[in-house]
Amino acid sequence: MRKSLAAVAVVLAFTATPAFADQTCKPVVGHFEAHVVPPPECTAPFCSAGRVWGGIQGTYSFAMTTIQPSLAVPSIFFFTGQSQINVKNDDQLFGTDTGSLDLGPDGGFAWLITFTGGTGAMAGASGQIKLRGTLDQAAGTTSGDYLGTLCTP
User: Fold this and answer.
1) DSSP per residue over the chain, as a string?
2) What is the pTM of this model?
3) Is residue 17 over pLDDT 60?
């Protein structure tokens, strides 16, 4: 049994380490604002586009890929999606999104973006940011803040 555990530890050490080798991680804190992107430009259940500033700066777009009711509270829904942040030098940062959204009169949301790579200086990026904010359905806008970690090679 000990030999098996030791063998698994060695395999994990040699296979998992390169994915995070030489990454520099930094805390990021900032804000965002966006507008809802309507059809036909948006072919997903919900899309938004806007800007971020603070620890991450640039423009971003979000496309929801799934949405389902929470069942516990009629106005709250759970969702998944994909984000793309365009940062300086035309580099892109990609993320997978998960969260909850209140489509009731309060319009709050909580969101987690897990970075899954990118282009240029963001190729191989990882980390996560947590977002919280509001959706003003009448104005078609969102705004809020984020906090997390961005790791780049």
Assistant:
1) -HHHHHHHHHHHHHHHHHHHTT-EEEEEEEEEEEEE--TTT--SS-EEEEEEEESS-EEEEEEEEEEEE-SSSTTEEEEEEEEEEE-GGG-EEEEEEEEEEE-STT-EEEEEEEEEEESGGGTT-EEEEEEEEEEETTTTEEEEEEEEEEEE-
2) 0.83
3) no
